[in-house]
Design a protein that fits this description.
Length: 182
């Protein structure tokens, strides 16, 4: 794109992005004791049940979307603070037979961003490809962050508009470029 909408966005370094903390040191003594635990001591109650799922959390969803690239800048949406960990909410019991929800608020870098709907579409495609079909995704702009907030929110969550956009080969090419590093 030749004319940038935001010529000077605030950029976060990769090291500033939230990451899941490692707990190896915290559990190293537990790991050592498990190594000594032999198979003959195993109880059938300890066998993993395939029908139970651990609920996903905000960090897991953030990890799925943090490498989505901005359509205008050669940076990720996380580096531009368009997506952030504190703007993701999850409603998931972990039960396979119940509908779960993911809500992401995006914060455009400028209030008149014309690419907000394209960014939302890219995030929706990424999550639809990555999450189980039991998840319902809602994407909205952060309140007060866009001058056409209600219109953008309506477009981002209208199934027919999203389906039509995904059938447009030019839009799909841009979305694929946004997701190329995921």
């Amino acid at each position: 794109m030749e004319d940038l909408l935001n010529n000077n966005p605030i950029v976060l370094e990769e090291s500033q992005l939230p990451q899941r903390s490692t707990t190896v040191e915290k559990y190293s003594s537990d790991i050592d004791s498990l190594r000594r635990f032999t198979a003959s001591h195993c109880d059938e109650d300890l066998v993993d049940d395939d029908d139970t799922f651990e609920p996903i959390d905000n960090q897991e969803v953030f990890d799925l979307i943090k490498h989505v690239h901005d359509p205008e800048h050669p940076l990720t949406l996380a580096q531009l603070a368009v997506v952030s960990l504190d703007r993701i909410s999850i409603n998931d019991t972990g039960k396979t037979d119940t509908i779960a929800g993911v809500h992401i608020e995006i914060t455009p870098t400028i209030t008149h961003c014309s690419l907000a709907t394209l960014i939302g579409l890219g995030l929706r495609v990424r999550l639809d490809r990555s999450l189980s079909p039991r998840f319902r995704t809602k994407i909205t702009v952060t309140p007060g962050s866009h001058q056409s907030e209600s219109q953008v929110n309506k477009q981002l969550n209208d199934k027919e508009r999203v389906a039509a956009a995904c059938e447009n080969s030019q839009l799909l090419k841009v979305v694929e470029d946004m997701l190329a590093h995921c």
